[in-house]
Amino acid sequence: MAEITAGMVKDLREKTGVGMMDCKAALAATSGDMEAAVDWLRAKGLAKAAKKSTRVAAEGLVGLHVKDKVGAVVEVNSETDFVARNEKFQAMVAGISKLALNANSSTEALKTMHFPGSPHAVAEYVAEMVATIGENMTVRRTAALSVTDGAIGSYIHNQIAPGMGKIGVIVAIEGTGDKAVLAEFGRMLSMHIAATNPVSLTLDSVPQEVLAREKAVLEEKNAGKPANVMEKIVASGLKTYAKENCLLEQAYVHDGSKTVTQALAEAANKAGGAAKITGFVRMQLGEGIEKAEDDFAAEVAKMSGH
C-alpha cells in the first residue's frame, strides 16, 4: 500500500475543499492515486464542495459568545446574505462561536475542534454544510478575551439572530466592583467601539508602521520647517490622531462631553471599585476581503466565442 503523506493530504484538500480526515481516507482507499481520490470523494458526495471553494465568500455572519469571564467572536463566511439567513447556517455559526471560547484566538485550533452532535471536526462539518447548502463557506477568523476578575462586555450590530450579525465586539474590563455594573458599561462601550472602530487602546499600542505613516504625512505637509518646530507639529498631530483613533482617548459616543477614560472612571466609581480596560476586539463581516467584480460584457463575449 502506498504511503499517504501529509503533503498528499494537503494537496487533495486544496484540490477539493474537503476536510483533511476525509482526504486521508480517500487517499487510503485509492492507494494514493490523486485523481481516483477525487472521484472517491465525489462518489461520497463530499467533493460537491470542490467547485464552490474557488468562489469568494464575503457574506455570512459574525458570531459572538460570552460565558463567565471569557468572550469570543468568530467570522464564518458564505457567498450570499441569503445563506446567512438560513437556520442551519445560523445553528452552525452558533455552535462554532461556543467552541471559540476554548480556541485561544487560534482559527486553526478552532477548525480541529469536535463539532457537537457530529462525528466531524469543525472544518469537516463546514465542508459537509457546503455540500448540503451548495455555497462555499469558510471559518475565516476568531478571537477571544478573558478577565481574571471583572466582566466581558459585548455587542452585536445588525443582529439577525441571537449572538449573530454583521459586527461583533467584545471588550475585557478588569475590575473589583459590582460585576453587573461593569458588564453593562462593557455593553455600552462595545457599542462605542462598533461605531468608532478604534485602532488601539492607547497611542503606545498603535502599530509602529501606522505611527510611521502618520508621522511621514505630517512631515510632508510641513516640509521645510525647522527641526524644533517640526518636532512640536508631529507631537501635536499624533495627539490629535490619538483622540480620533485610540479608544481611551476618544470622546465617548454616549456622552461627547467626556472621554472613554472618564466614562470608565465613572463606571468604576458606580461599581464600587477600580476598573481597567485590558483589551477589545471588533470584528466586521467581510473586512479586508476583495470581492470579485463580474465583467458581464467580457463574460458574454467569452460565451459567444469572441
Task: Describe the overall structure.
This protein has 306 residues and is α+β, with helices and mostly antiparallel strands. It has 4 domains: 6-52, Helicase, Ruva Protein, domain 3, CATH 1.10.8; 55-146, Elongation factor Ts, dimerisation domain (Tetrahydropterin Synthase, Chain A, 2-Layer Sandwich); 149-206 and 246-283, Tetrahydropterin Synthase, Chain A, CATH 3.30.479.20; 207-245. The protein is built from 13 helices and 7 strands. It has helices at residues 6-16, 20-29, 34-43, 48-52, 81-84, 87-99, 107-112, 122-133, 179-196, 208-221, 227-245, 260-271, 296-304; strands spanning 59-67, 70-78, 137-146, 150-157, 164-165, 167-175, 275-284. The protein has a 4-stranded antiparallel beta sheet with strand order 3-2-1-5. A hairpin with a 2-residue loop joins strand 1 (59-67) and strand 2. The radius of gyration is 24 Å and the shape is globular. It starts with 5 loop residues before the first helix and ends with a helix. Residues 302-306 have low confidence and may be disordered.
SSE map:
Layout (H helix, E strand, L loop, with lengths): L5 H11 L3 H10 L4 H10 L4 H5 L6 E9 L2 E9 L2 H4 L2 H13 L7 H6 L9 H12 L3 E10 L3 E8 L6 E2 L1 E9 L3 H18 L11 H14 L5 H19 L14 H12 L3 E10 L11 H9 L2
**What is the strand arrangement across the widest sheet?**
3-2-1-5
Count of discrete domains: 4
Radius of gyration: 24 Å
Give the strand content: 15-25%
SS elements, strand count? 7
User: Could you spell the SSE succession in H and E letters?
Assistant: HHHHEEHHHHEEEEHHHHEH
Which sheet architecture does the biggest sheet show? 4 strands, antiparallel
Structural class: alpha+beta
Shape: globular
Q: What would CATH call the homologous superfamily of the largest domain?
A: Elongation factor Ts, dimerisation domain
The appropriate CATH architecture of the largest domain is 2-Layer Sandwich
**Distance from first to last alpha carbon:** 49 Å
What is the number of helical segments per DSSP (H or I, 4+ residues)?
13
Low-pLDDT residue spans:
302-306
Helix content: 40-55%
State the CATH class of the largest domain: Alpha Beta
